C-alpha cells in the first residue's frame, strides 16, 4: 500500500520516536551545560525548580487538554510527594520505597477523584478537587508530628535499596536528577500522544455519548487519566523536596492551583512544549515581575486575562497554527471514490439468521411514554427502515438499540445475538457488534479523521492503522485523514461518522437520519455504502425523513406514530396504508370559517430568492413567497423540509444567507416556536409578563394587555394564572404559548407545529382558537407537518420539499390538494406534466 | 447540682455556637446567593466576587476614616463593588464567547489576583479593624450573644426577603428567571440578555459586598479576608444545588452551622475538612444537590 495516508502514518511513527527523544536529549544537554559551570549556582537552582514545575505543569496541562479535567487538587498531590519524600528521608526509607509509595498513593487518590468527578460536570470536579486541596492544607498544618506544621521538615539524603547509590538533597546532583526526570516525563508524554489511550481520553471528553457508542467508558478513562496525572504530580513533589532540601506548606497553597491553571492556559493545555513554557513561567514569573516593577499577582493576572482574550488556546498552539497554515497551504487533491452506477439492493439470504428481535419494548421518561409496544425483527443482510412523523419515537428506538436512553426506563425484551440487549451497558455493545451513527454526525472534534476511527480500538497497532486507512479509503476520506473534523464539509463529516461506526465491523448497524442534509451525490454515495454492508451480511436499521432514498435501500419499512408501531410493509407499498399515510398528512377535520379574501390584500411579508445555510447544510433554497394580510397561510412539509427556518425568516429574527425579506411598514410579528418553548418554572402570568417585558411594554399598558390576553384564554387557564406553566397539559401549554405571542400585539402570527404531541381533541381546540384570531383580522402563518390540517385551517397551502417550494395553491381546491399530497412525498408537482385547471 | 450547672453551661454554649453558626451561614448564604444569581443569568462562576467586595470595603473604610458615617460608608462599599465589577465584566468577561464556562472562571480568577494585589498596593496588607454598626452583646439565657451576630442574621434575612420579592413578584425578576431557565427561548422572545446580565452582576456583587460588610467587623480586614467565606459559599451552593437560590441560602446556613459546630466540638484546625467532607459525601449520594434539578444528557 502506498497511499498518501500510509506514507504519513510511517512518517508519524518516525516523528514520534524523534519527538520522544527530544526531551531526554534536551535534558542531557542542559545537565552538561550546568555541569560545565556556565550557569551560576543560583540560576542552576532555578533551573532545577523549573524542571520540577515542568513535570507538574505537564501533569495538570495534559489532564486538562486531553481529558478535559481542570484540577485544583494538584497542589495537594504535589505536597503529598514532597512530604512523603521528606518524612521517608528522616525515617530511613529507600529511594525506591519513597518514589513508589508517593506515586502509588497519589495514583490511588487520583483514580478516586477522576472516577467520582467523571459522573458530573466540570464545576463539580472543580469543587471536588478544591475540597481535596483545602482538606490537605488543613492536614498539613495540623498533623505536626509528620509535617512539622508551619515550620516544615527537612529533606535528608535517600539511599537506594538496590544499591544504586545515594541521592543527596539540595545540591547539584538533585538539580540534575530533576532536569533528567523532566526530560523523561516529556518523553513519556510524547510517546503517549499518538497512543490509543490519549485518543480514547480525548474522545470521551469531546462527546461522551458518541464515545460510549464506540465502546469507550468516560468514567474509566477519566479515572485512569487522573491517576496517571496524580502520579506525575507526586513525582514532581519528590523532586521538589530533593531540589529544595526542605518541605513546608508555603508552596502548596490554593494560589499555586490558580498559578498552575494560569501556566497551562498560557502555554496551551494539552501540548508538551506548552508545559515547558508553563514550568518556566511558574519559576521565573516572580523575578520577571520584580524586574518589571509590578507585584507578581498583577503580572500573573494580566498575563492570564491577556492570554484568554488574545490567544484562547495558549501560546504554543497559536504558534503551531501559524506554522501549520504556512506548510499546509496547498490542499491535497480530493480523491473521491469513483462514481458508480446505482447498484441493486441485494436480498438477504432466505436462510439468514435473525440478528435482532424486539418484543413489546417500551421506554418511559418520568411519566412520559416515549415508546411503547415496539416489536420488530431484523435478519442478517436485511435493512429495515423506521419512518414516522416528528415525535413518533423513532430516535428513542435507536437509543434503545445503542443503549443511550439516558434517564429513560426501558422495558420489554430485546434479544440480540441470543443475549438480552437491555441488560448490556452502552459501552459493551460496540464489542458485541453494534455500531451507530448520529443525526448530526457527532464526531470527536479534537481528533483527526484517522484518529476518530482509530480510537475505537483499545490498542493502536500497525494492523489496526492499516485497517483504519482502508476504511477511510472505502468511504472516500483518505485524502483528509490528517485533518480535523471541523475542516470538513457536512457531507464528509457524515461519512466520518459512518466510518467510525463501521470500524468495529458491526453485525448490526444503526443509522440515525443518515441522508438528512446531504446533497444528491452524497446520498448516492451513502446508498452505495449501505448496499456494501448488505452484501457483507450486516443487519441495518435506519430512520430518516428523506423517504425516497430510504425506500431505495430498505427491504422492509416499519411505521411509527405516537410512540408505537402502526404499520409494516415493503418500501413501495407502505404509503398505501391509510394509517401510515395519515400519520404524515393528518386527519383533516372540518373546514372552519375564514374571512373572505378578494385578492386585493396588501402584502404583509415578501421573501425574494431566499436561501439559507447552516454551516455547510442547505436548509432553504430559492424561496419566493408572499404572505397577504388577513390570510391564513399553511406551510407544509415533512420534518427537515425547512419549515422552522422559513418561519424564523418570515418572523424577522433570522437573516437569510441570501435573498431579501420585505415587510409592510410597522408590521409587528410574533413567533410561537416549535415545542412551545414556554418557561416551565414560571407561572402563566409571568410567562405573559415576560413576553411583554421583551417588547418594552411596562406599567399600566402591561397590565391592560395582560388583562386583554387573559380574556382570550379559555376559563380553565384564566383561573390558574399563578400556576407554573410546566404543570399544564400539552394543549394548554400550546394555547398559552399562542397567548404569550399575542402579548406583543402582533399583526402577523407565525405558529410552528401547533399540533405537535397533542391529542386530536386538543388539536381541534388549538386550531379553533387560531381560526378565531384569523376571523378577528390577524394574519397567520401555520408551519405544519400535516397537509390535511393545514388545508382545513388555511386560505392557501405551500408545500416545502427539501428546502424549496414544491407547490402552492388554494386550500379549498381538491385538485390542488391531490397535487400537494404528491409533492409532499417526492417534491414533484404533477401540474408540470398535466396542467391542473385553474 | 454541679452536673445540672454544667448542663446549662453546655446548652448556653450550644446556643452561642448555633447563633454564631447562623451568622456565619448568613454571610455564606448571601455570597452564595450572589454567585448563583450571576451564574444563572450569565453562566459565569464569579471567583472574583470576594476580592471585588473587599475593594469596596477598603474604599468604605477610607471614607469612614475621613469622617463619613458608617451607614453611608456601607452604601459606598456596595456602590464601589458594583461599579468596579460591572466595569470588569464589560471589559474582559463580555468579549468571551458565550458558554465558555472555564475561560470565564479562569478569567475571574485572574481578576481576583489583580484585585487583591491592587488592595495590598493601594492600602497595605496589614490587618485592620473594621467598625461595626453595633457593639456589645445580648444575654439570652446564660449565653452572651454578640449583637453583631444578631444584626448579621437580621440584615441578611431582610436582604434575602427583598431578593425573593424581586424574583417572585416583579416583571424584571420573572425575566431573570426566564433567562436562567432558557437563554435560548428568552432570545427568541427578544429579552435583552445583556441588560439582564448587567442587572444580575450588579445584584450579585451588591449582595456579596453586603456580606463582606457584615463579616469584616468580626474577622478584621486584610486583602484576603473573604477567601475562606468564598470557598464555604461555594460548598454551600453545591450543597444547595448550584442553580437554586433557596439552595444557596440553605446550603450556606448549613455550612455555617456545621463549620462552627466543628470548630467548637471537634477541632478548630479541621473545620474545612469537616465542612468539605460533609459536602462531598452529600454530593456523592445526591449529585444534583439538595435543591438542584437533575439534568439528563441528550444525544
TrEMBL record, chain A:
Gene Ontology MF, one: ATP binding
InterPro entries, A to Z: AAA+_ATPase, ABC_transp_permease, ABC_transporter-like_ATP-bd, BCAA_Transport_ATP-bd_LivF, LivM-like, P-loop_NTPase
The keyword Magnesium is annotated on this UniProt entry: no
The keyword Transmembrane helix is assigned to this record: yes
Sequence intervals crossing the membrane: 20-38, 45-66, 97-116, 122-140, 161-192, 223-247, 254-278, 298-319
Subcellular location: Cell membrane
Membrane topology: Multi-pass membrane protein
Domain of life: Bacteria
Short name of one Pfam family: ABC_tran
Limits of the ABC transporter domain: 356-587, 605-827
Keywords, sorted A to Z: Amino-acid transport, ATP-binding, Cell membrane, Membrane, Nucleotide-binding, Transmembrane, Transmembrane helix, Transport
Primary location: membrane
Assigned protein family: Belongs to the ABC transporter superfamily.
Name recorded for this polypeptide: ATP-binding cassette domain-containing protein
Organism: Streptomyces ochraceiscleroticus
